[in-house]
Each structure stands twice: as C-alpha cells, then as structure tokens.
Amino acid sequence: MEFKDYYKVMGVARDATEAQIKQAYRKLARKYHPDVSKEKDAEARFKEIGEAYEVLKNPEKRAAYDQLGQGPRPGEDFRPPPDWGSGFEFSGAGAGAGNPDHSDFFESLFGAAAAGRRQRRGFDNGRGEDHHARVLLDLEAALHGGSRTFTLRVPEIDAQGRLISKERVLNVQVPKGILAGQTIRLAGQGSSAGAEGTPGDLFIEVDFQPHPLYRVDGRDLYLDLPVAPWEAALGAGVKIPTPGGVVDLKIPAGSHAGTKLRLKGRGIPASTPGDLYVVLQIALPAAHDEKAKAAYRAMADALPFNPRTSLGV
Fold first, then answer.
1. What is the domain count for the chain?
2. Among 27, 193, 232, 247, which one has the highest count of C-beta atoms within 10 angstroms of its own C-beta?
3. Which CATH number belongs to the domain containing residue 45 in this structure?
C-alpha cells in the first residue's frame, strides 16, 4: 500500500495553521474541480485533495496521522504499525468512512474503525456525541481484570489555529476475560449536549500489547517452548509457565518442531475459557568446543538422517 503525504498533496508545511490548510484547499479545489479544470488528471487530483483535506482539517484525524511521521521512502510498501491511533480520543461517528473515492491508505487508517463507530448508536438531537478511543492493554488485565489508568490525547485547535493536544486521564475498570476488539463503555464521558441534553458516552476499544511469552488468538494463548533434541526424541517432563503459574508438562516421545500440546482451559477466562497451546521449538546446543563437535559427529554417524527428504533431494 502506498503512503499518502497529505501535507505534500496540499502544498502546506506540517505545522500549517487551520487557516493555511483551508486556504490551500480552496485554491487547489478551484484549480482541479472536474467541471472547470483543463488539467488531464483533474478528477483524480480533486479526489486526492479532498481526501487530504478531510484528514488535515480534522484535529483528531490530523493528530493521529501525524503520529505516522513522514512515512517510508518512495516506492516502499506501507503498513500502519499495530499501535497506530492508540491513545487518541475521537469525537463523533467518523462520517466519511467507506467512501469509494478514498484511497486504500485512508481506509486502512480511518475507514474500518469509523464505520464500526457509526453502527454503535443512531443520531439523537438531545444527546451529545459519543467519543471513541483505542487503548493497548497488558494481557494480565484480560486474564485477571482490574483497574487500569489510561492517558488519552484530545487534539484541538488553539486560538492561533495550531494543532495541540490536551491530556485526559481516566481510571477504568477492565472486565476479566475481555478480548481484543471489544469495547468498554463509559457512560456520560462523551460530548456535552448542553444544560438540557444528555452527554454522550466514551467507547474504549481495547487491544493487547505484545506479551513476552504468549501470543493471543481469540481466547486461546500460544507459548513457544524450546526443547532439546533428546527431549523431543525420547520424551521428557518439563516445567512451563502458564497464566496460572508453573506446571509440569509431559513431552511425548517422537515430538518434532511445531508439535502443539494443548492445556485445556488455561487461556483467557470466560464461561468456556480458552486453551493454552504449547508449540515445541527444537533448540540445538552450540558446537563451541571439540567435545561438542565430537558428539555431533557421533550422532551423524549413528543416525543416518536426511532432513530434506520431503524436498526430493
């Protein structure tokens, strides 16, 4: 996917004010409007300019976009990092997502999330706008639940038309067993609707920070377990870490790299909890001295073995 430099598209500096961005858009929109422009690529440029303006005129989208930096070098493929957009508080329903005129780049950043936000609540004149944020949780919060403190950045335009961010600190009770992609609703923490209206809500969508031991797949957890060649070949009893503590695990004889051993119910909790899958990885001792090299030579002589048989060579 191609990275879009919206500042370059608009011809403005990255610290441009709200007025400068609006002025640049008006000038470019007049130049490339398909109804009046003589430029051969007018329609494509007009769509590109409109997309750039939609991001840069919106303090929240612009602040999130700025987090990406200036993107990869020309010609390099771009994918947003996993933590992109986390910690920002967005207001409204994200109108504009799913527009066929938008690029894949725009949709990957703003489209799917905004479309999901639109579905959560209909329009209500007597109610303030809902706000939305994405945060990264430690896996332990899903395993055990409990209170977590989040600092959200709330972008806005100051009196000089410059983009700034204010911070909002929230203490949130995380329910045990929550999964990535699920939301926590904080009633009344969205936009105010005035003296007689009802404030909107804040929906916090959670994702997990990378864990040093476990990979998460739905409610299941995966643990890569290094084993010695003789443990895999002959079988062994080893100790392994689990979310509930260290347990004994029996490795069957004849195991190989990639063998999966299932520990039922030791994943993320629920009425039907997930499982913990232990994936065996063969760890080879280093042949760093003559004794170790001799042991490898003896094994090679004793075990005529071609690991590439499946390749036909």
1. 3
2. 232
3. 1.10.287.110
